[in-house]
């Protein structure tokens, strides 16, 4: 069946999604004339975005030339910033991380400090002339089109800060700013091929990225999926104050920072969420008890998402997810208790296999979609690319 191909970028999307194709393949899939296909393939070849990849199987005549997407044509720099540190990566145009590094820093140190460290890391990963796009993920609501953080609960000094401006003068391509969990959701969706999923990041804080019908759902102000600051299903008689200023948010019962506080009050030597996961791995009974209870609280919030959105997958990542079944069993218990059987019939709840590179991979994919969109791609191809 022919696909719409109103722009040279549509042809490039074919190669990105389907792999090596011949001219005949492109004509059949797009319905475009041979002359138009030849013109657009030539533009993509001149830009070195596609390359010859050998010949197709022949049925007796001369084999057709195959063309394939050249993912090594340029690089994308990505920064996945969390509450207590960040992971940076340089990726190819297929979103594959080529090299990466991690640094510890508290996000509330402020944008100048954190982004300065990010730039130092970027300088060690790639030269500016190799880079076609930059993407930065942050642990707070993002106004995507404006590249700004909006009223972040824990990001002191970041509200309204123009993150893109910190990098746009150094790199020629677009600078994308995205919520960190949205980026993970995009990575999970693309790499699993599943268009309906929820990605949970369970670390110092709690957040959810939502993908429906293959599209990331950001909401009107970028706050979609911020389940960590919804009210917990089960609360104590004495209200708990959240870091956002509200009472009895889910995070006060189940986030890494809350578990660290509770275990510290019980005399355990814990400072970070990773310390909580280490205690669980050692079989510490109090840590196991609190994490299992946290799983149930998270499960109640996830049950609401499952009932409303009906995802096929719920993928968990973050340092708290390293607690494995101690956490997962509580989540599954509440989801299956509180959700109709139809919504959970084929539901899979699992720990992500993408590890620490989930965020940078998703950020790269979002940035690549941006830089290879019709407008930016036309600039890359030059005046001869056509429309």
Automatic annotation (TrEMBL):
Organism, as annotated: Cellulomonas chitinilytica
**Short name of one Pfam family:** HTH_24
Family recorded in the similarity comment: Belongs to the ROK (NagC/XylR) family.
- Which keywords are on file for this protein? Kinase, Transferase
User: Is Kinase a UniProt keyword of this protein?
Assistant: yes
Q: What is this protein called?
A: Sugar kinase
Q: In the record, what terms sit under GO molecular function? A: kinase activity
């Amino acid at each position: 069946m022919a696909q719409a191909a109103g722009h040279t970028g549509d042809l490039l999307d074919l190669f990105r999604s389907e792999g090596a194709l011949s001219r005949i393949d492109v004509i059949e899939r797009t319905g475009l004339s041979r002359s138009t296909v030849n013109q657009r393939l030539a533009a993509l070849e001149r830009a070195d975005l596609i390359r010859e990849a050998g010949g197709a199987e022949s049925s007796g005549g001369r084999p057709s030339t195959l063309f394939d997407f050249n993912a090594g044509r340029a690089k994308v720099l990505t920064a996945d910033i969390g509450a207590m540190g960040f992971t940076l990566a340089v990726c190819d145009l297929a979103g594959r991380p080529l090299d990466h590094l991690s640094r510890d820093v508290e996000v509330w140190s402020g944008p100048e400090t954190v982004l300065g460290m990010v730039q130092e890391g970027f300088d060690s990963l790639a030269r500016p002339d190799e880079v076609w796009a930059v993407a930065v993920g942050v642990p707070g609501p993002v106004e995507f089109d404006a590249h700004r953080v909006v009223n972040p609960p824990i990001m002191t000094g970041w509200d309204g800060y123009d993150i893109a401006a910190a990098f746009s003068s150094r790199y020629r391509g677009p600078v994308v700013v995205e919520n960190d969990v949205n980026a993970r959701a995009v990575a999970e969706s693309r790499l699993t091929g599943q268009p309906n999923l929820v990605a949970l990041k369970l670390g110092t804080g709690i957040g959810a990225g939502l993908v429906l019908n293959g599209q990331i759902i950001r909401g009107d102000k970028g706050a979609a999926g911020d389940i960590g600051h919804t009210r917990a299903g089960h609360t104590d008689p004495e209200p708990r104050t959240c870091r956002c200023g509200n009472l009895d948010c889910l995070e006060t019962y189940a986030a890494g920072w809350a578990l660290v506080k509770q275990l510290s009050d019980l005399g355990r030597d814990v400072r970070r969420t990773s310390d909580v996961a280490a205690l669980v791995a050692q079989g510490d009974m109090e840590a196991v008890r609190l994490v299992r209870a946290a799983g149930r609280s998270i499960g109640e919030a996830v049950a609401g998402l499952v009932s409303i959105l009906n995802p096929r997958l719920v993928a968990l990542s973050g340092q708290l997810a390293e607690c494995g079944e101690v956490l997962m069993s509580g989540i599954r218990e509440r989801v299956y208790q509180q959700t109709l059987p139809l919504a959970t019939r084929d539901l899979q709840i699992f720990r992500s296999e993408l590890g620490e590179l989930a965020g940078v991979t998703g950020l790269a994919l979002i940035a690549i979609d941006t830089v290879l969109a019709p407008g930016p791609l036309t600039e890359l191809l030059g005046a001869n690319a056509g429309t």
